[in-house]
Structures are given as structure tokens and as C-alpha cells.
Amino acid sequence: MSGDDSIVLTCASDEGYAPYATTMLLSALENTRGARFRVHYLCTPDFSARSQALIRQSLRAFEARLELNFIPVPDALVAGLPLFKTMKAGEIRPVMWYRVFLPRLLPDEPKILYLDCDILVVGSLKPLWRTALAGKALAAVTNPFWDSPAELAWASRCGLERREDYFNSGVMLLNLDWWRREDITGKVIAHGLANADWTRFGDQDSLVAVLHAARLPLAPRWNAMRMLMMADQSRVIFSAEELHEAIRHPAIIHFEGSTKPWVDPSKHPYGRLHARYARRLPWPVTHTPWTLLDLENLLTRLDWPRLRARVRGLRQRLAAHA
Length: 322
Known about the structure:
Largest sheet: 7 strands, mixed
Number of domains: 1
Shape: globular
Structural class: alpha/beta
Number of strands: 10
CATH topology: Spore Coat Polysaccharide Biosynthesis Protein SpsA, Chain A
Radius of gyration: 19 Å
CATH superfamily: Spore Coat Polysaccharide Biosynthesis Protein SpsA, Chain A
């Protein structure tokens, strides 16, 4: 497939995350109609032929406009790099660092769209792919924080003067030519190793520290995080119009943090939507009963925070008396 007019997309996972990466890819292909895709799937050396076959089977309906390449990444490349401090051992593996090596792993790609596996694409990716990156290393969405002193101080801990300069790395449009020219891979790795004693979010803290001044901010609908929907800081960082569009009409939904829809879809405002896509794939899906939490999620998606707060209070009172 000629890649001149293709969206070049990459993700990274081990065997365990294959179902979620496939859900993301299915949603991207289905909701970006008419676009050709070249997908570079970065995987661990032990990623099985069976998983590769299941992924190809799951995406067979799109094979006429899809080129899918599996790229095993040697363990030695990411050995010793810091992981998430807030996750339990084994929950986050060094696979999260694979994206930092994209300029070296894909030497012929000038630009690439990176998406985390815990993502659902619900709008066309064409406008995002066409975003001009001249003079910028990447485009990404600002990451809001919860309203606690420790959280709000994290941006300055990473060397930033403004909180809005801290971005989320789950959705990144990367200017790989810029990265190669400035040796960004080397700089991010060096920062990660030198600051492993205090960084919390693996490579994200290092990406932000090195690249915040070279980032093009994206509208929040391109990375609609739960934190964006729930944290008060979101209403400080983004305009009311931007935030309303991101919550009600997201293009990319990001299930960041611990509320993964495959664990319990009722714990995220868009978790049930993720489950509908996942049920079409050849992997088991968690089934949970509908509860008052689903009404709260509906009110979150409608961007009705006051009524949502009342329902949450009712739900918590009922739980306390159960």
C-alpha cells in the first residue's frame, strides 16, 4: 500500500493489552471513513503469533485500506527506565517507553500519530492528522490535575512555569523529523534515568519536561480524559465552549488512570460505549449490571455537573446505608 495519503498510526502493547489495542484500532478505522491507514504496532518480543492473528481477524473488514505491521521491541532497549510510581508492580510494563524510540524504530516515517491502547476513537482522525506541525515537536492536549496541593504543584515539579504546559502523552501527533534532528529520544531517556527517584508517570513526565516548549496545544476533544470531565481545574484551563464540546462530542476518549472499562465499564462515563466495541472482538468482555452510577455517567456525558453532583450524593448515601 502506498503511504502517501495514509494516516500513519502507532500503538504499543504486550500480550495482555492486545484486546484493548485492537478495540482502539477497530474504533479508529470504523470512525475515520474512507481513510487509508498504515499501522505500526510496537509489541514485546514474546508477543504471540496467535494474538497477531486475532488482531488481523478482528480488523479484516478494513483490510482493503489497512497496512498492519507488528514491530517487536527488544527488552534491552527499555531496561532500567522508570515506570508509574502510582501503579502496582506488573500493572505498567516498560512497553510504555516504546513510543520514545519511534524515530529510531521507524526511520522512514516523517510524522506519526501515537495513541495509547486505553482509547476509543469516536470521530474522524482526518482533521487531527492534517494538523500542521511546522516548527513543533508534537501536538497534544493539556492534562488537567485534581484540586489538591500535591497535584497542582506537579507541573512546577517537572520544571514548568504554568500548569497548562503539562500535557497528556496518550494522544500525540509527532514530528519525527524534528525529533531526529534534535535527538529528542536521547534527551527524554537521559531525563528519565536522571530523575527516576521522583518522576511519577514514567516517560510522560520526561516527555513534558523536555518538550513542553515545543508542543502545539490541541483542543481537548482530541483527548477527552475522565479527569478533563471531572476535575475543576479543567474549567480553568479550557474555555467553556471547548470543554462542553470535548465532553459531549469527543473525537477521542481516553480511559486514563485506574477506571479501565474492561475492569468495570460502569466506572467511566463512556465505559459502556467501549464495551459495545469490545464485544465485537474475540476476547471476553466484563459484564456489570446497570446501577445509579450509570445515571451519573449520563449526566457527566451531558455536561450537567450540578445535577450529577446531586445524583452522586444520593448514590453515596444509599451505599452508606446498604
